[in-house]
Task: structure prediction
Amino acid sequence: MSDTVFGAPIRLGVTGLARSGKTVFITSLIANLLSGAKLPQFVASAQDRIELAYLNPQPNDTIARFDYETHLAQLYAHPPTWPDNTKGISTLRLTLKLRPTGLLSGLRGAVEEHIDIVDYPGEWLLDLGLMDKSYEEWSKDVLHRMANRSFGADYVNALPAKLPPSRRWCQSHGLICWRPLAQTSE
Ligand SMILES: Nc1nc2c(ncn2[C@@H]2O[C@H](COP(=O)(O)OP(=O)(O)OP(=O)(O)O)[C@@H](O)[C@H]2O)c(=O)[nH]1
Ligand SMILES: [Mg+2]
Result:
């Protein structure tokens, strides 16, 4: 962190699949930093350079604020509860006042470093691969992969030659076929 360009906020995206612990981790990280706990893996903390940590208003009002207070209260409640699964993106700005390092550190005052922590629903990760694909391309890829798997081959063989099949055809074969509503043929 001492090597970052001072003044430029750090955007910290916490990533992981759904239910992997992102929201709990972010809540815990913020609580630890605000309470002045020593975090050995965080160099600034291990070197005892954090003079102060505090929450700041967000720079971007169009993105929801990470509801740190509610998540923390849930974890501390009697009985404690885990957060609900995250429905949308949210951010929180944490500001650290850091003692400078280097030769001239004795001459410089503390510097402020903003960290914008981003939380989002883990299931979005699985959707990233869809961003550049049309529905037809995605269907073709899935069916191609299914055909190579023992449990998928029967399903693929049962499908009509013309794809994607109509909802009526799926129902008459006891299959659940999904496609965007706008494109559904009866
Ligand atoms: N024992 C233990 N369980 C945890 C911990 N952190 C998370 N969990 C479990 O993992 C579940 C998911 O945690 P979240 O932080 O909500 O996971 P997430 O990655 O934000 O999930 P999404 O919002 O669905 O993407 C919790 O409901 C707990 O059951 C932890 O530190 N210890
Ligand atoms: Mg979450």
In short: Residues 22-23, 85-86, 119 surround magnesium ion (ligand 2) (CB under 6 Å). The chain has a mean pLDDT of 84. DSSP finds seven helices and five strands in the chain.
